[in-house]
């Protein structure tokens, strides 16, 4: 009796969801963040539902299984526009973003009321290496350090400290591809000394990001500049929301997402900017770390390049933008702080351009070279730039490294537009059709 | 005698701790809702449903954790919060533990909290929890120092290390006015010690929950409860050390203490929602370069005032 | 003396705890566990001191030992990232010497406990132990305690300075060079090149 009373109460709680951010799953997660009753959590241990949003490449299925098995019982899995793992025959699959919150809540309630069994464990529950301890208390080998009872050597100080000369033992770990603080899909081998990043070797590039379809159309035919600029502002606002959430500014992150959701040429950024400055985001959280020199900044492109003082914006080649008297905004410092100042300035500029362009009904003219929010798309799409962080992150503390990563937009641009039922291996024609339907 | 010296204090501390922790969750939920976080259901029910969910969730395991320390740490943190609350006087006669060195006992609660938080992160045997634990220890010492200097400041006019005497010494003028630097410094330390809001460096988002990133189910419930309870204990000490404890017109003493505690809690929780997380290195600089010298100033101020 | 039976019971429990956790210090296989077992032992002793109405000393024991053990664990663990004691370590060395030293100290302390005559002066009823301790610390013995405190502080600062590569004129491994007396001049206070005959590798 008592138990059923407890589970009935538990069924009413907000649904703790751990999102695995797959390919093209971000848009649905932005919507979920604003949905009452759903809470996106940072650790699989804190969730009752594993939501796989977007496709996961087959070579990362093992990592997905490990994340899956980290959820404590009872838990359920939900697959949003993603093919469930073969072992999970009865997994729920959702493709309609509007149905997602409802399905999540139903799944949670059914779990709590015992109407749905917990998802089965996929991997055997055993240490990755067999126990190799010797002796009474597992000291293992000889001497002070003992042996390697879990097949893992002791963290040893193999590296000199790169900051203050206090040499600590270095610990090497593999992170990603589903760590919520990293860009989706980014996997890395990281050596840490305390919380200081000693070395960072990117092993998997982040998943390509999908831009709104208007950017892909702009490559083919002239599109209204107002639409283009609003999509750009929306993209930046969503990135800003991620960084703000990471900085513990949940309310401003939500404000930023709401602004992105209802963005129109009349939207104003002043309120958000004022609150951001007042609460000390630029003084307490972002600092003059993560500095990119010109070469690295050019490799990343887009906001990062302009924040480092490179006046590179393909919009200045477009005659229509020339009529709007467009000149690129630039910052000089090239660090995390400058990148966020630049992002805010570009959002404001985009809104202003959208207002002007809407009044004058302007269309973009150049189709060979367009400036996407991720960077310039001239000859080829902006490619993966995650290589730069291997040089950038060593020497930073964990928090600084994460703040720097959030301020950098590194993923390649996908060849498919956003919000299209696009799966790995599915014929590209289907995707294009769906995009047509959505616009119709 | 047993009733007065043992049973009554235990009941009093338990009730204040449980109700206080619940109110922390409710007030925090209300502030979040007012600031625009989407909410389903009322703020009054949300902590209960969340707690019920954690009770139904299984406590998980990591690979080869230090089981004893891992399971004990949340309970020990809760016990420390209870010890801290036990030295708060609710009226001249209603004092759970009227130790002559209760100010020092509170100091040792702060010191032992460092140990417990470290153990919680260290014993899980995972990277992010370990980093959270180290971060707290790196900062914990500065929290303890600032808090001790500020509390010595309030002990000076009282000429006693006993919280009831400290309250009694504020009969004429509350310490919040007499030593204007004291309360702000103490509140900052409070946010630091319960790693709340801007000083949430041990259980922060960039560590996916830090020391709590790998705990689930009942032990996570106890850990979160203990954090809220420590915040309650902190507000109790702040109310007695700076806001005159039970002193106040019209209402009975214990009620005044509770009201002042609620006020302190509301301020702390609001700050927690409004400010971004301070970067660890910046936080170390802030503590040692700005706040610690300020606490010296506070102490000198208090000393000069006591001499005059 | 007149005190309730419960004090005896608590004394026995705490004394057992202190001894058992003190013994565990030497049986455990991780530095962190060893430090915190030692902390438990000290806390038990601190509570016994409170039972002996040495209230200030007992409570001071808690926070002194908490910080001390934490710093100890940090100095060991930070230099040795071994989360959750995953890799067991041998915590006892020099067995013969330490056994001999342990036995000798036990005999001496046991002898002191059994053979010496403890004073039996009932405390005056109005004695305030905290105030009298304060008078002792900051009265006649003030010079001793204050100078000991300052010596300890300078030692700590010295250790930090010595263990850091970062010097006044730059990082140690780059070879710190003081600035010149005039802008752009030779480093001040440095011996002339060749004074030592270029024997840079001599020890």
Automatic annotation (TrEMBL), chain A:
Region (Disordered): 112-140, 364-388, 419-440
The organism's place on the tree of life at top rank: Bacteria
Molecular function per GO: NAD binding; oxidoreductase activity, acting on NAD(P)H; quinone binding
Pfam families xref list: Complex1_49kDa
Sequence ranges of Low complexity compositional bias: 423-432
Residue ranges constituting the NADH-quinone oxidoreductase subunit D domain according to the UniProt record: 285-358
InterPro entries the UniProt entry points to: NADH_Q_OxRdtase_suD, NiFe-Hase_large
Protein name: Respiratory-chain NADH dehydrogenase, subunit
Automatic annotation (TrEMBL), chain B:
A molecular function GO annotation: NADH dehydrogenase activity
Pfam families: NADHdh
One annotated Gene Ontology cellular component of this protein: plasma membrane
TM region(s), chain numbering: 6-27, 72-91, 134-156, 176-196, 228-247, 253-271, 283-304
Major location category of this protein: membrane
Organism for this UniProt entry: Modicisalibacter ilicicola DSM 19980
Name of the protein described by the UniProt record: NADH dehydrogenase subunit H
Claim: NAD is one of the keywords in the record: yes
Keyword terms of this UniProt record: Membrane, NAD, Transmembrane, Transmembrane helix
Subcellular localization: Cell membrane; Membrane
The keyword Membrane belongs to this UniProt entry's keyword annotation: yes
From TrEMBL, chain C:
GO MF terms, alphabetically ordered: NADH dehydrogenase (ubiquinone) activity; quinone binding
Reactions performed catalytically: a quinone + NADH + 5 H(+)(in) = a quinol + NAD(+) + 4 H(+)(out)
EC number: 7.1.1.-
Protein topology in the membrane: Multi-pass membrane protein
Protein localization: Cell membrane
Membrane-spanning intervals of the chain: 6-27, 34-54, 60-85, 97-116, 142-162
A cellular component annotation (GO) from this entry: plasma membrane
Segments for region (Disordered): 171-203
InterPro entries in the cross-refs: NADH_UbQ/plastoQ_OxRdtase_su6, Nuo/plastoQ_OxRdtase_6_NuoJ
Similarity comment: Belongs to the complex I subunit 6 family.
Subunit organization: Composed of 13 different subunits. Subunits NuoA, H, J, K, L, M, N constitute the membrane sector of the complex.
Stated name of the protein: NADH-quinone oxidoreductase subunit J
Organism: Modicisalibacter ilicicola DSM 19980
């Amino acid at each position: 009796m008592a138990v059923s009373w407890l589970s009935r109460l538990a069924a009413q709680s907000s649904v703790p969801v751990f999102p695995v951010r797959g390919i093209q799953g971000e848009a649905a997660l932005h919507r979920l963040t604003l949905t009452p009753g759903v809470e996106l959590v940072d650790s699989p241990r804190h969730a009752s539902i594993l939501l796989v949003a977007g496709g996961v490449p087959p070579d990362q299925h093992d990592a997905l299984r490990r994340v899956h098995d980290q959820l404590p019982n009872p838990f359920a899995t939900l697959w949003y526009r993603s093919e469930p793992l073969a072992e999970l025959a009865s997994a729920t699959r959702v493709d309609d973003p509007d149905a997602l919150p409802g399905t999540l809540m139903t799944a949670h309630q059914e779990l709590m009321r015992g109407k749905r069994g917990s998802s089965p464990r996929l991997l055997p529950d055993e240490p990755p290496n067999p126990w190799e301890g010797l002796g009474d208390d597992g000291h293992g080998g000889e001497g002070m350090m003992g042996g390697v009872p879990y097949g893992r050597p002791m963290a040893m100080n193999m590296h000199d400290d790169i900051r203050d000369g206090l040499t600590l033992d270095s610990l090497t770990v593999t992170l990603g591809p589903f760590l919520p603080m990293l860009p989706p899909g980014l996997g890395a081998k990281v050596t840490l000394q305390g919380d200081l990043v000693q070395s960072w070797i990117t092993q998997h590039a982040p998943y390509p990001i999908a831009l709104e379809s208007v950017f892909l159309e702009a490559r083919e035919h002239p599109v209204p500049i107002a639409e283009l600029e609003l999509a750009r502002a929306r993209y930046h606002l969503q990135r800003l929301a991620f960084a703000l959430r990471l900085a513990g500014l949940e309310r401003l992150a939500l404000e930023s997402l709401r602004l992105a959701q209802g963005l129109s040429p009349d939207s104003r950024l002043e309120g958000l900017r004022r609150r951001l400055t007042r609460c000390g985001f630029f003084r307490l959280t972002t600092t003059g770390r993560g500095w990119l020199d010109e070469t690295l900044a050019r490799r990343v492109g887009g906001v990062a390049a302009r924040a480092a003082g490179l006046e590179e914006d393909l919009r200045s080649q477009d005659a229509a933008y020339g009529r709007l008297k467009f000149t690129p905004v630039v910052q000089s410092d090239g660090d995390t702080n400058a990148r966020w100042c630049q992002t805010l300035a570009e959002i404001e500029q985009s809104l202003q351009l959208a207002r002007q362009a809407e009044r004058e009904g302007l269309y973009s003219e150049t189709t060979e070279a367009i400036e996407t929010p991720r960077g310039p798309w001239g000859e080829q799409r902006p490619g993966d730039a995650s290589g730069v962080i291997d040089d950038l992150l060593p020497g930073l503390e964990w928090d600084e490294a994460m703040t720097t990563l959030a301020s950098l937009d590194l993923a390649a641009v996908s060849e498919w537009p956003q919000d299209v039922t696009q799966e790995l291996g599915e014929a590209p024609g289907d995707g294009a059709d769906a995009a047509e339907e959505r616009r119709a | 005698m047993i009733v007065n010296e043992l049973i009554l204090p235990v009941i009093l501390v338990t009730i204040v701790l449980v109700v206080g922790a619940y109110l922390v969750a409710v007030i925090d939920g209300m502030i979040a809702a007012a600031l625009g976080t989407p909410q389903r259901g009322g703020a009054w029910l949300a902590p209960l449903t969340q707690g019920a969910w954690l009770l139904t969730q299984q406590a998980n395991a990591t690979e080869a954790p230090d089981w004893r320390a891992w399971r004990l740490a949340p309970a020990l943190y809760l016990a420390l919060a209870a010890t801290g609350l036990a030295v708060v006087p609710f009226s001249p006669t209603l004092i759970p533990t009227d130790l002559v060195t209760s100010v020092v006992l509170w100091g040792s609660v702060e010191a032992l909290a460092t140990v417990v938080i470290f153990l919680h992160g260290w014993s899980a045997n995972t990277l992010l929890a370990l980093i959270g634990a180290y971060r707290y220890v790196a900062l914990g010492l500065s929290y303890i120092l600032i808090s001790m200097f500020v509390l010595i400041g309030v002990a000076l006019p009282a000429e006693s290390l006993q919280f009831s005497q400290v309250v009694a010494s504020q009969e004429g003028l509350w310490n919040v006015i007499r030593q204007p630097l004291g309360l702000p410094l103490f509140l900052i330390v409070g946010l630091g010690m319960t790693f709340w809001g801007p000083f949430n460096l041990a259980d922060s988002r960039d560590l996916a929950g830090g020391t709590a990133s790998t705990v689930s189910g009942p032990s996570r419930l106890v850990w979160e409860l203990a954090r809220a309870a420590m915040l309650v204990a902190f507000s109790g000490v702040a109310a007695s050390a700076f806001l005159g404890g039970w002193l106040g017109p019209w209402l009975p003493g214990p009620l005044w203490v509770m009201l002042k505690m609620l006020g302190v809690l509301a301020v702390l929780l609001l700050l927690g929602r409004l400010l971004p997380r301070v970067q660890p290195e910046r936080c170390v600089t802030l503590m040692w370069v700005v706040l610690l010298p300020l606490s010296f100033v506070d102490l000198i101020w208090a000393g000069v005032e006591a001499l005059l | 003396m007149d005190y309730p039976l419960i004090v005896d019971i608590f004394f026995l429990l705490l004394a057992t705890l202190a001894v058992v956790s003190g013994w565990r210090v030497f049986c455990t296989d991780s530095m962190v566990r060893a430090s915190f077992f030692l902390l438990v032992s000290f806390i038990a002793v601190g509570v016994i001191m409170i039972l002996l109405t040495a209230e200030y000393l007992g409570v001071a024991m808690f926070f002194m030992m908490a910080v001390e053990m934490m710093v100890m664990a940090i100095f060991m663990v930070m230099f040795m990232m071994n989360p959750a004691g995953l890799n067991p370590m041998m915590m006892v060395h020099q067995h013969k010497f330490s056994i001999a030293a342990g036995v000798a100290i036990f005999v001496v302390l046991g002898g002191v406990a059994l053979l010496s005559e403890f004073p039996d002066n009932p405390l005056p009823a109005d004695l305030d132990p905290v105030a009298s301790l304060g008078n002792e610390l900051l009265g006649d013995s003030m010079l001793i305690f204050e100078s000991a405190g300052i010596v300890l502080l300078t030692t700590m600062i010295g250790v930090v300075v010595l263990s850091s590569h970062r010097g006044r004129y730059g990082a140690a491994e780059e070879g710190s060079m003081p600035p010149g007396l005039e802008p752009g001049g030779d480093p001040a206070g440095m011996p002339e090149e060749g004074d030592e005959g270029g024997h840079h590798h001599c020890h």
